[in-house]
Amino acid sequence: MDGTRCAKVRLWRWRSNPLRRREDIVEAWIVLAVWVAVLVGGTLAGLVTAHAADRAFAEQRGDRHPTRAVLLADVPKAAGSAGPASGHALAEVRWTADDGTARTDKTLVARGQQAGAEIVVWLDGRGALAIEPMSPGEASVESAALGSAAALAFTGVVFGVGTVARWRLDRRRVARWGSEWELVEPEWRRKTG
Fold it and tell me: What is residue 75's three-state secondary structure?
């Protein structure tokens, strides 16, 4: 080693220094606020979102119930269709509601079934067709994903606001350096010229 190693001074913005400017102190507070907001706010946003999603999925499981329905028309088999819903088609079904009335509506059913076939459909608390609710395991995974997304979104917003604030401070710093240079530069030019 040649002995010209530069030591990095930790927390330099917080230390007393005659070269430290007001913008340096403000920047230190901004960095601290951003990290605290990310750690505390991001965690809270993720937990609150995950809890709310889990509660909503539990309400769906409690509200929806399966019932038997009858297909009113044949559901043709599709030749060569692709995609996630390729094994299902929209078909009209009839079921008996909890109050004893017969109802009809359209829902997705497996292809290739004949009219009169019995299928299971899910109804919500009002008796309208609904999708099957998530199992507790699926709901936990979905809640965790939504909570993580909320935490990441909050973190991104906080970092964005902090970056804009630091950028504005840098612009002020550069402007102040320019005005100070205009005061000092004529003196230097006289001495060197």
Answer: coil
72 and 128 part of one domain: yes
- List the structure tokens of 111: 């292809």
Does residue 82 sit within a domain?
yes
One-letter identity of residue 172: R
Total count of domains within the chain: 2
In a domain, 2, yes or no: no
The reported pLDDT for the residue numbered 127 is 83
Distance of CA 133 to the CA centre of its chain: 22
**Mean pLDDT value across the chain:** 86
Cα separation of 137 and 141, whole Å? 6
pTM of the model: 0.70
Q: Decide if 15 is inside a domain.
A: no
Instruction: DSSP letter for 153, please.
Output: H
Contacts of 20 (CB under 8 A, 6+ apart): 13
In the chain, the N- to C-terminal Cα span, in Å, equals: 39
Q: Which two tokens stand for residue 138?
A: 């699926």
Boundaries of domain holding 83: 65-132
Residue 117 lies in a domain: yes
Q: To the nearest 10°, report the CA torsion of 148, 149, 150, 152.
A: 90
**Domain shared by 46 and 86, yes or no:** no
**Does position 193 have pLDDT exceeding 70, yes or no?**
no
Burial of 147 (0-12, 13-18, 19+ CB in 10 A): buried
pLDDT above 60 for 80? no
